[in-house]
Inverse folding.
């Protein structure tokens, strides 16, 4: 065999061998495409079983001193407090609160002046007041004694504020009979919504208004109020306090001075009129008109003003009818001032 033929056969064998190798490799690749790659499949995470049964109660919510209450997820409807409608009211005086004698209230307020205002408003009329200097102290008092009609709760206090204290109170069914009333100078819609969400059923703005507090008592007290005696009062003490810049102590001083300086004004005025000393009567009435405007006694001031103008009447003694009205109104005013003081 020639050398050329041998070389040709070797080339053919090499080519055949390469074809076989290529075919085998192609078959393996084809097989790999058909078979699924198990290692590339996503991992399936089995859901974990719930440890607690759905009937199992939620964990108790701790209060500030470590003792536990029930869950704070209770609905506000779970602690509904009966409320009655409030009829139209006249002017309210301090003595009207005697209608709620025997009721007990808890006042959570960190400001000493505000505490004194509330105590001064209700003291002496049979309403028992228990004071707490912050929300933590209020909670501690409730643990010992929960016999209260309502809690006047300042919204912003140190340690435990009014919002958190109210949430804890509303979480405990033992306090479902207690009304929580917010005390706050914040009257915006967002602030009121925050109070309602915490469980504060009513809101009283600062400075505290006597009529607003009376309405809260009337709406939630179970006392039977047969007759309302606050209609047609001569003295508007609420306006008088506002005229005195909100200083009730100063207002009381002004009232005491009025009693001292003008308590006998009906007697003096009668003497002037009977003696036809109209100039002195006019001067006295002018003083009374100014003073009554400052203390909130507008009815007496109006009568004094009409009486002063009647002094110019050509017909003598026509002013005595107005003078009789003045005497009656002055007597009523002095009685209401005495009750207020």
């Amino acid at each position: 065999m020639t050398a050329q033929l041998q070389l040709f056969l070797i080339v053919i064998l090499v080519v055949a061998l390469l074809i076989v190798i290529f075919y085998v490799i192609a078959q393996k690749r084809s097989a790999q495409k058909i078979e699924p790659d198990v290692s590339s499949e996503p991992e399936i995470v089995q859901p974990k079983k719930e440890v607690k049964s759905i009937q199992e109660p939620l964990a108790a919510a701790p209060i500030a001193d470590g003792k536990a209450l029930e869950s704070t997820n209770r609905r506000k409807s779970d602690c509904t407090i009966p409320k009655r409608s409030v009829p139209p009211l006249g002017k309210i005086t301090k003595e009207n609160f005697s209608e709620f004698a025997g009721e007990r209230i808890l006042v959570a307020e960190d400001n000493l002046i505000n505490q004194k205002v509330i105590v001064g408003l209700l003291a002496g009329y049979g309403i028992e007041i228990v004071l707490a200097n912050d929300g933590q102290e209020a909670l501690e008092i409730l643990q010992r004694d929960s016999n209260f009609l309502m809690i006047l709760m300042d919204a912003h206090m140190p340690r435990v504020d009014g919002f958190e204290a109210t949430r804890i109170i509303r979480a405990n069914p033992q306090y479902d009979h207690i009304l929580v009333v917010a005390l706050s100078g914040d009257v915006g819609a967002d602030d009121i919504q925050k109070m309602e969400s915490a469980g504060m059923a009513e809101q009283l703005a600062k400075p505290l208004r006597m009529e607003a507090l009376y309405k809260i008592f009337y709406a939630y007290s179970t006392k039977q109020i047969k007759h309302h005696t606050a209609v047609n009062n001569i003295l508007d003490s609420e306006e008088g306090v506002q005229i005195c810049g909100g200083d009730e102590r100063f207002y009381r001083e002004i009232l005491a001075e009025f009693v001292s300086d003008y308590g006998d004004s009906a007697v003096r005025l009668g003497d002037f009129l009977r003696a036809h000393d109209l100039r002195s009567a006019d001067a006295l009435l002018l003083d009374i008109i100014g003073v009554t405007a400052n203390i909130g006694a507008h009815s007496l001031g109006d009568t004094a003003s009409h009486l002063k103008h009647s002094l110019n009447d050509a017909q003598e003694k026509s002013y005595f009818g107005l003078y009789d009205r003045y005497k009656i109104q002055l007597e009523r005013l002095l009685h209401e001032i005495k009750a207020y003081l």
The first helix runs from residue 3 to 34.
